[in-house]
């Protein structure tokens, strides 16, 4: 046996013993047709995989868990972005974070858990406004971003009892502009900052009071991963914004490659 053939056989055996290489999961993104897709790769070099679901109205994913609302179902996602549970959901508007869904029409808060979904009714008087975003504060409370007379309020609601724990006005440019949007889906509430798609720019406001803006047009924003937010505009491809302690970086998403 020649030396070259022996080397090729050894390489082939090693390759067969190794698992197939797969680019890491960055987060999720919705394409122009309303299909939610997993985004794999590294910053600036992304690949959009096959659709997780079509007809997606609202969604949120934090890198560990996710919720997806279609016109008929509420889907629970695992850490790898695949569907681990699905159930019928009200055919009405929903506001989501990665584990919670609020249905304004019924004033119900649903939370995903290992045994399914828990539900609690929220007193309309506790909200006293229009809910435009959700964000987790801890295991027992959900943060509601609420518009009251064009003013943004942040409410902490007990996820077990539905009672209002405390509320505050965050102040800043986002508080002044968030309630001028036409509906939910323009504000993202993260543990250390908020992002708002205004149509002319993305506004960022940290809990420390630092304010920044990214001069890109976007009308929709969603939590897309542990360190990622996806933004969509009326024209052009969607973008992924990577969140770090130093700031934010914006990357264009490629068009999905459909199977032939």
């Amino acid at each position: 046996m020649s030396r070259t053939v022996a080397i090729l056989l050894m390489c082939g055996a090693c390759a067969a013993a190794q698992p197939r290489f797969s680019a890491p999961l960055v987060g999720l993104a919705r394409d122009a047709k309303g299909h939610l897709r997993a985004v794999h790769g590294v910053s600036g070099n992304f690949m959009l995989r096959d659709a997780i679901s079509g007809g997606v109205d609202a969604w949120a994913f934090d890198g560990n868990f996710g919720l997806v609302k279609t016109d008929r179902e509420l889907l629970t996602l695992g850490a790898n972005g695949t569907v681990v549970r699905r159930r019928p959901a009200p055919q009405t508007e929903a506001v989501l974070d990665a584990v919670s869904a609020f249905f304004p029409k019924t004033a119900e808060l649903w939370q995903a858990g290992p045994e399914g979904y828990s539900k609690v009714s929220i007193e309309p008087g506790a909200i006293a406004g229009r809910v435009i975003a959700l964000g987790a504060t801890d295991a027992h409370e959900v943060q509601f971003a609420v518009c009251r007379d064009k003013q943004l309020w942040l409410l902490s609601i007990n996820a077990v009892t539905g009672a209002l724990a405390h509320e505050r006005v965050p102040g800043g440019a986002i508080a002044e502009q968030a309630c001028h949007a036409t509906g939910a889906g323009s504000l993202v509430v993260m543990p250390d900052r908020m992002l708002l798609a205004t149509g002319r720019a993305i506004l960022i406001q940290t809990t420390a009071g630092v304010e920044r803006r990214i001069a890109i047009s976007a009308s929709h924003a969603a939590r897309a991963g542990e360190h990622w937010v996806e933004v969509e505009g009326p024209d052009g491809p969607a973008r992924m914004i990577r969140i770090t302690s130093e700031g934010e970086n914006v990357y264009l998403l490629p068009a999905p490659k459909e199977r032939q």
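The two ends are 42 Å apart (CA to CA). Residues 1-21 have pLDDT under 50 and may be disordered.
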